Amino acid sequence: MILEDILRRKILLLDGAMGTQLMSQGQRGVLELLNVENPDLVKAVHASYLDAGADIITTNTTCADALSLKAVGAESRSYELALAGAKLAREVADKYSTTLFPRYVAGSVGPTSRNLTLANDTTPEQVAAAYQEVIRGLIDGGVDMILVETAMDAKNVTIAIEECRKVDENIPILVSAVLSRIEGRVASGATFAKFFGDIPMERVSMVGFNCSNGVKPLESALKHLKEVTDKPVIVYPSAGEPRVAANHFAKAIEQLCRASQVNIIGGCCGTTPEYIAQLKRVAERWRPKRV
Description:
This protein is α/β, with parallel strands linked by helices. The protein has 11 helices and 8 strands. The protein has a domain at 29-229: Homocysteine-binding-like domain (TIM Barrel, Alpha-Beta Barrel), CATH 3.20.20.330. α6 (124-140) links the parallel β3 and β4 (145-151).
């Protein structure tokens, strides 16, 4: 299986941003609706990242949970959109996959629109129900792993992990947090030790960070993370603001690869197939973090 075998041999390449790519095509609003309303466009984005060399593509489902969809009255469509998103990604990944170059699908599970630590209008049961529908749709649609991303609230993450394990006890779960501007903390303000200590790490296959403001904050973040866990590491930062050019973005991530600190690399907001093509060359040059 991917996380037990391949990660020992190579740095895997995740895709780049889905949302900003769709918006560059003139799309607005709830982008997850495109999974059923314009599936060819979503598949085209997936294919562009696979053409660039990605090993793993992520589903267009970051905001497919009922709590996020409620704002547009589409909460009842959560399972439908997650299932459709997973099937689209699976179809494209299978088309590109070969024995020598297998391609994988990560089911994207976002933070929802409510963080239980701060929200006073949402119960744990409501968050659990929202996660359950998305995760069930993703797994029914054939994803290879669940990516709990843009995470900042350990309570939410714990519930997402619990709901995932109710559906599939063995599917790999990756948890990717968003950094605070304060060194050594996630966006909620919790220290790495507190955040990762409050989630059931024994049920998690990999941890890391996404989004944030470019690559630079990851350098100190990974040093702090090493003090908390020895799990495999995934990093896929944004292109930054102002946006860093693809070659500079890749060069910055290469420093992390050279130090054998990572197992999966990719891009978040603002990154394009050009960024992933640049990262492909980086991933091929260096060995992964030992797991």
